[in-house]
Amino acid sequence: AKEGPLLISKSFLFNKNYFCRKKISSEKRYQDLRNVVLKFNKLMGIKLILTGLQNLPCEPSFVLTPNHQSFMDAVCMIELLKQKSSFIAKKESKKYVLIGKAISSIDCQYLDRDNLRQEIQLMREVKNSLKNENKKWIIFPEGTRSKNKDYAVNEFKPGSLKMAMSSAVDIYPVAIWGTFRVLNIKENRFKQYPIYIHIFNPITHNDYKDMTTHELASFIQNKISKKILELKKLDEQDMHKYLKKKYQN
């Protein structure tokens, strides 16, 4: 596969940008990674089908909260967002050979849920970056990939929203459908992989200021779950058309 040599050749770039991150601007490190992502997605035949683009955030600071179907969610979010962004991920993600190096090179923060002191310190750092450094963060509130047979959304963890709520920044829910197919040997190999992404209207501080973290997590989870059902139905219709055209030819 063409994408393998590309990623291997670029692993040096990820390493360099990580170890020299104090000398290389965060903007350049992000654009380096995004350029690799754009090439990789093109080689893979990934096609983003986007709705809600008018809601794409342009504020200095914000938090995006997508659902999580595979590590390709992060890859697609990087293609989607031209502006410098980073991730809050579980500590296990750092061990992934390529994706771990890639997101580490753009200042990903890793959360150890078994270490309360580290979690509190991380929350303070992220909160400060949202207030004072105009940082943009992507966090998957499910905490891990959906392993449900139908890729239904897992329960959102309320604690994942504390940093955004305490910083009073806008929260953008994002629904993603289709990333589970990419690099999945159990799925059929297609020349093109459609990935459906919907960006919701922002949930502002005025919207959630009277909510608890549990209430907000449930609210966002329900919004995304409903949209996932719509995207799944659209995907099935498009896939039927694709297969019909394929076998007619």
Please describe the topology of this protein:
Elements: H1 3-19, H2 26-44, E1 46-51, E2 62-66, H3 72-80, E3 86-90, H4 97-104, E4 109-111, H5 116-132, E5 136-139, H6 162-167, E6 170-177, E7 193-199, H7 205-208, H8 213-248
Parallel strand pairs: 1-7, 2-5, 2-6, 3-4, 3-5
Antiparallel strand pairs: 6-7
Molecular structure report:
The structure is a single chain. The chain is an alpha/beta fold and 249 residues long. Helices cover 47% and strands 15% of the residues. It has 8 helices and 7 strands; from the N terminus they run ααββαβαβαβαββαα. Strands 1-7-6-2-5-3-4 form a 7-stranded mixed sheet, sandwiched between helices. Helix 4 (97-104) links the parallel strand 3 and strand 4 (109-111). It is globular. The two termini are 25 Å apart. The model has no long low-confidence stretch (mean pLDDT 88).
